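Entry 14. Structure prediction run on the chain below.
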Amino acid sequence: QVQLVESGGGLVQPGGSLRLSCAASGRAFSIYNMGWFRQAPGKEREFVAAIIYGDGTTYYADSVKGRFTISSDNAKITVYLQMNSLKPEDTAVYYCAADPTWRRDYRSSNAYSFWGQGTQVTVSS
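Output returned:
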């Protein structure tokens, strides 16, 4: 059993920045693949970014590439999402997700066994 807790969401103006954090507890030793997803009103949950623990390999959705950076502190089993140049279309609830094994379908929500509660990010003037 793994628990994930997100933090760092809030209200920011377009062009601003936020950094989200996701801390894992419980059987966090089993975590290997971690990712961020988001869901806007009326939209399906979509992939944002992923990182492979013990590897450092990262993956990004085209919509955030060049603006968002996913990173991790492996000692703390914590993953971060640095979000720069935020746009109104980035507004969504952001979810941290994890799975104990590597999956090639990392862009799919079905690839992750554990999920956080989500943190709201609102980009508005």
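The mean pLDDT is 92.
Filed with the rest of this week's runs.
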